[in-house]
Amino acid sequence: MTRSIRPLVAGNWKMNGLKADIAIAAEVAKGYDTVLKQGVDLAICPPATLLFTTSAALIGARIATGGQDCSTQNSGAFTGEVSAAMLADAGANFCIVGHSERRTLHGETNATVMAKAEAAQKALLVPIVCVGETREEREAGKALAVVKKQLRGSIPDGATAATLVVAYEPVWAIGTGLTPTAADVAEVHEAIRAELGRLLGKAAAAGVRLLYGGSVKPSNASELMNVANVDGALVGGASLKADEFLAIARACNG
Ligand code: 13P
């Protein structure tokens, strides 16, 4: 954790959730008590179809919501796309961009991810820009180089702590139950902070929230959240269970 940074635990529901599952969000809201509220921010990123209702259900609890992706475009003839302005209009505060599932399955390049992050910022959403290496890249000793290149290519110029969140999600740790060692997470997060310093200036970089994502569970959350420069978590599978998501939030609350 970074003392001066208020941590954020964000749940990425991915392509899961029907309207009955808004009950999960409501249960998270019930468990977000005064102690948690004092120390940690929460956000839930449901599928776009549930964003409006989920945002309405969470506003009283001061839990944010986010989209999982957005178009690079604001509006127009782009069938099937959802713009950042639409997500904001549905109540979102954040938008995940450049998730490895988008980079891999939808061929998103760093340039696309940067354009999406800029579109999100234009709509006054805070982009959660995801970076992370594959297993082959880690085994070849290239993890830091890959992550730095992704940052250089996908972080908008002029971003600040208020307009940017970065998530380090090693591809091989997503949905696998595998996690890097605390030392490996520390090494990458330190490198991310340093690279952001070069891109945005030291002062801005010092306040940007750096989330770790990839198989975060209640059982490993304390260890991961106590790593230097880890300012919260981006949680996939465990965010679909209110008790697990809240347990991770408590681990983040020190
Ligand atoms: P899991 O927590 O299911 O590994 O997913 C992580 C993730 O991809 C969050 O964006």
Task: Explain this structure.
With 254 residues, the protein is of the alpha/beta class. It has a single domain (8-252), classed as Aldolase class I (TIM Barrel). It is 44% helix and 15% strand. It is built from 12 helices and 8 strands. Strands 1-2-3-4-5-6-7-8 form an 8-stranded parallel barrel, surrounded by 6 helices. Strand 7, helix 11 and strand 8 form a beta-alpha-beta unit. Helix 6 crosses helix 8 (143-154), helix 8 (143-154) runs parallel beside helix 9 and helix 11 (218-225) packs parallel to helix 12 (242-252). The protein is globular and about 45 Å long. The protein starts with 7 loop residues before the first strand and ends with a helix. The protein binds 1,3-dihydroxyacetonephosphate. The site of 1,3-dihydroxyacetonephosphate (13P) has 14 residues, from strand 8.
Keywords:
binds 1,3-dihydroxyacetonephosphate; eight-stranded parallel barrel; 12 helices; alpha/beta; TIM Barrel; 254 residues
What's the layout of helices and strands?
Layout: E1 8-12, H1 22-31, H2 34-39, E2 41-45, H3 48-58, E3 64-67, H4 84-89, E4 94-97, H5 100-105, H6 110-122, E5 126-131, H7 135-139, H8 143-154, E6 165-168, H9 182-200, H10 202-207, E7 209-213, H11 218-225, E8 232-235, H12 242-252
The structure holds 1,3-dihydroxyacetonephosphate (13P).
1,3-dihydroxyacetonephosphate (13P) binds near residues 174, 237 and 238.
